[in-house]
Design brief:
The complex is a heterodimer of chains A (about 625) and B (about 50).
Chain A lengths: L3 H24 L6 H6 L6 H6 L5 H22 L5 H25 L28 H25 L4 H33 L9 H26 L3 H24 L12 H25 L14 H31 L9 H23 L12 H23 L6 H25 L6 H26 L1 E7 L4 E4 L2 E12 L3 E12 L2 E6 L2 E5 L4 E5 L1 E4 L3 E12 L2 E10 L1 H19 L27
Chain B lengths: L1 H20 L28
Classes of the chains: A alpha+beta (about 625), B mainly alpha (about 50).
């Protein structure tokens, strides 16, 4: 330990210096550095010159290392109450992970490589990335990805120590929840970015790289629930360890998929097949090592306690199994084209036709079980006592869902619409029952309960808004000349024409669209078509009128000649609530992770447990 | 110059990460508790000798 903590601090300082040097090279237009010359340009605005540091492979690896060094430093500073050997082992495992990434960067992806003679000017940042979201999306996503390395390190340290008890689970929980919260925001931000920048109004494409971030999120969600059971009841120890290993494995796999270029995706700007082998080898060493450790220690893991079928433990077990099945479905669909190609079975394209139905198969029962599981107690379910509240919340959810569907939107003709609406509202109502009951009884609400409630309400809002978006979005593409209109439900889009546009490193045209609702003007939209000079790439910039209950969207397509332009019009109800719900979920995670119990002195195995809802009728 | 310093910092970080990695080997590995013990080479005479 005399080495681990100072080493963690030194690593942070050194990686910060490396990142700082790279930022300096970008800001000062040092085109004698190959990476800068490849991803920047003298016309690039200062803001993008800084964000361009992680706009491609080499720099994003440095960002990854910096975030890992930051997490390691945080563990070093906040592990004062952990047993010294345990903390040292955690930092040691994080050191091994850092070592792998440092080696990878220096051997295969050196961002400091010089270009001789220096380039006169740079080749510019990929125009797709010239967006403010570049400053936030990769750092947040990586903070989530890398955060699972901490859960992984805690799991490995526990296995090395041979003490995989409830104390370990309690130490791990805040770190895992924090990583999960960051990953949630990162994914949501990526989806929002795709919506207004990439996808002509789409927000989730089941793209391999999207899936690569979604798989660790699904496993991470299972992990935070499994950790709750291990912490409270000392059960599922082996399963929790395995999930901790799996969550980080999925993060590494995600990196492999993004960096290797084995799969074609919207993120393929970052691809390079030659690097894939290194990450694959690293994946085998790190994950193979952890799984070997697990195989060695698994016989020690026996759970003394039992639980009834209707106990909270059972529902959390179902939650875990269904989330892992969902992650497996995504995993299978993501890797299927790769496997098909490797076996010479031809090119296979896996899209929404596979992902939507197969993903919903485990997710719908999972959502239904959330509302039931929330009301169950630890150990002895006594779900029979909760029949009244279950029936009442379900009946109210059904009434509200029907009122929403038939009152506000009208029948959508899809069976999933009422199912999704009822499940979403039922989750929101069920999440509120316990906190309201506690407040009525003048009991305090610990942050873990507040955080859990916020996250579950957010899940309900997410399901409800996604159902409405998928059921009631209307869109239409049309070729319009100035003065012509297209009708979209009660809305009419009148194309007024285009005008030239010039930006700092692009030119193009800006269209003007006047939007009417029932004949009354309600807004004007200015979608753009930009031509970035250096790379000669044409980008579509949609314009979106964001309202409290819907987005009015317009995008300018191709110039069809003779003054006619292709225009996409779209009305998406409640779409912003999908991302707001994700933010709320992350907020719930942050609140839960800040619970006072996690900051208290180390608890020994013999101390009585805070059993949570149930046996004594108290919840935690 | 600053770029070279950044490169050098990265190399130093690699060395320090290697040093930090040795912290996993804190004291006992718990192998004994798990019932594992290194018994040295087993050279007992078997019946076929």
């Amino acid at each position: 330990m005399a080495v681990a903590r100072p080493a963690a601090a030194a690593q942070f300082v050194l990686v910060s210096a490396a990142l700082g040097a790279l930022i300096y090279a970008f800001v000062s237009f040092d085109f004698s550095v190959l990476y800068v010359a490849s991803n920047s340009n003298s016309a690039l605005p200062t803001f993008y010159r800084v964000a361009a540091v992680w706009g491609a492979h080499e720099g994003s690896l440095v960002l990854w290392q910096w975030i890992l060094a930051l997490w390691t430093l945080a563990v070093a500073l906040l592990s004062g109450r952990l047993p010294i050997t345990f903390a040292a082992r955690v930092l040691g495992v994080l050191g091994i992970v850092s070592l792998g990434f440092h080696l990878f960067t220096l051997v295969t992806s050196n961002p400091f490589e010089r270009l001789l003679p220096p380039a006169f000017d740079g080749r510019d940042l990929n125009p797709v990335l010239q967006d403010p979201a570049l400053a936030l999306h990769p750092p947040l996503l990586y903070t989530g990805y890398v955060g699972f390395a901490v859960a992984f390190a805690f799991a490995c340290a526990a296995m090395l120590e041979g003490k995989m008890d409830q104390t370990w689970a309690r130490w791990t929980r805040p770190w895992t929840t924090a990583a999960w919260a960051f990953l949630t925001i990162g994914i949501a931000l990526g989806s929002w970015w795709a919506y207004y920048e990439l996808g002509w109004g789409g927000y989730w494409f089941w793209d391999p790289v999207e899936n690569a971030s979604f798989m660790p999120w699904l496993i991470g969600t299972a992990l935070i629930h499994s950790l709750a059971v291990t912490d409270k009841r000392g059960l599922f120890k082996a399963w929790t360890l395995l999930l901790a290993i799996l969550a980080f494995s999925m993060s590494l796999l995600g990196t492999f998929l993004v960096r290797s270029g084995v799969l074609v995706s919207v993120h393929s700007f970052a691809a390079d097949p030659s690097r894939g082998m290194f990450i694959l080898a690293f994946l085998v060493v790190v994950i193979g090592g952890a799984l070997s450790l697990y195989a060695w220690r698994a016989p020690l893991l026996r759970s003394p306690a039992g639980f009834e079928l209707t106990a909270r433990e059972s529902f959390l077990l179902f939650n875990n199994v269904l989330l892992v099945i969902a992650a497996t479905v995504v995993f299978g669909g993501t890797l299927a084209p790769l496997i098909s190609d490797a076996l010479g079975l031809g090119t296979l394209s896996v899209g929404t036709q596979y992902f939507n139905p197969t993903f919903l198969l485990p997710i719908i029962p999972l959502l239904a079980l959330v509302s039931v599981g929330i009301h169950s107690n630890w150990k002895r379910g006594r779900i029979g006592d909760k029949t009244r509240v279950l029936v009442r919340t379900f009946a109210l959810a059904l009434a509200l869902a029907l009122a929403l569907i038939y009152g506000a939107y009208g029948p959508a003709g899809k069976w999933l619409t009422p199912v999704g609406a009822v499940l979403g509202i039922w989750i929101i109502l069920s999440s509120l029952v316990d906190p309201i009951d506690r407040l009525r009884r003048k009991m305090t609400l610990p942050r873990s309960v507040v955080g859990m409630t916020i996250a579950h309400i957010a899940l309900g809002v997410f399901v409800l808004s996604l159902t409405v978006v998928e059921s009631y979005t209307i869109e239409r593409d049309a070729a319009l000349r100035p003065g012509e209109s297209l009708q979209l439900g009660r809305y009419a889009y009148r194309f007024e024409g285009i005008e030239p546009l010039e930006g700092p490193n692009y030119d193009g045209v800006r269209g003007e669209v006047t939007v009417f609702r029932d004949g009354k003007q309600v807004g004007r939209l200015f979608p753009e078509k930009r031509n970035y000079w250096v790379q000669g790439q044409v980008m579509t910039e949609a314009d979106i009128d964001t309202r409290w209950n819907k987005n009015v969207f317009a995008a300018l397509g191709e110039d069809l000649g003779a003054g006619s332009w292709s225009v996409r019009a779209q009305i998406r109800p409640l779409i912003d609530y999908v991302w707001l719900a994700a933010l709320l979920m992350a907020l719930g995670g942050a609140v839960a992770a800040s619970d006072r119990r996690y900051r208290l002195a180390t608890r020994t195995e013999n101390e009585p447990l805070d059993v949570g809802p149930g046996v004594e009728g108290a919840t935690s | 110059m600053i770029v070279e310093l950044g490169h050098f910092a990265m190399i130093l970080a690699l060395l320090i990460a290697a040093l930090q990695s040795f912290s996993v080997l804190q004291g006992r590995t718990g192998a004994r508790r798990a019932g594992w013990r290194w018994r040295g080479p087993q050279l007992r005479r078997s019946s076929c000798w």
